[in-house]
Amino acid sequence: MDTNWYDNHQKRVNLIKAEWERMLSQHLSERFYQTFLSKYVGIFWGNENCHLVISKLKLGSELETDFVSLTDGFSNGNVFELIEIKQPSARLFTEKGTMTADFNRAVQQIRDWKRWLVDNKAWVKAYLPTINTRVIFDSQLKFTIVIGRRTDNPYEIEKRNQIGKEIGAEIRSFDYLTDKVTKRIFYPRAWTEDDFPDFESQLANPFHKAITDARWKKFCKSTQVACSHFYSRHYCEVIKKRPTFDFE
């Protein structure tokens, strides 16, 4: 485990970002971007209160997320963000202004997730543990679609935002992820109630991969998962179960 990750961390981040930007200019399949983001998930989806992301979390037998991030909302409860990604080359609207097939599938995916979660509250309580099981209103569950590249077309932006409000999800471009990495401040230690510097440094390490559906569900079955103050309660388990990678 890299206990000195903060040394030269910005140089490492810049190399990952440069590789990411090269990928955005290529017409690759969704699988390539999902794999890349899964490896470097701590860089792209992590922040000072988010140190764990699940890849390909299955909702029942038919539905599957691309990613689910876990942000510590402290006394307000854990916040789970369910994320659907498409390709950077995907467009949201046709020349006639109608939704493209890619965008329509992503929107339908969010609707399907929400309906399934509403109908399966026991599953939500077990595998997305937070202070309540609400999905639609006053929920600790957030939903995000990442699709396409940034546009300056005001009509498309307005229409995209309208659809986002209708389905209760944020709709972001792949350039948004680039901006997140560019603007992010990496801290040498995470915050926990116990104030153990070594553990907090390891928890803050952003050079980690996403954990699998199976590993997350096994963790949830093996212990009483805290619905709030998650990282203060489970930092040892997170550090142990979260795979890191060697920077070459």
TrEMBL record:
InterPro entries: SduA_C. This is DUF4263 domain-containing protein. It holds the Pfam family SduA_C. Residues 28-162 form the Shedu protein SduA C-terminal domain.
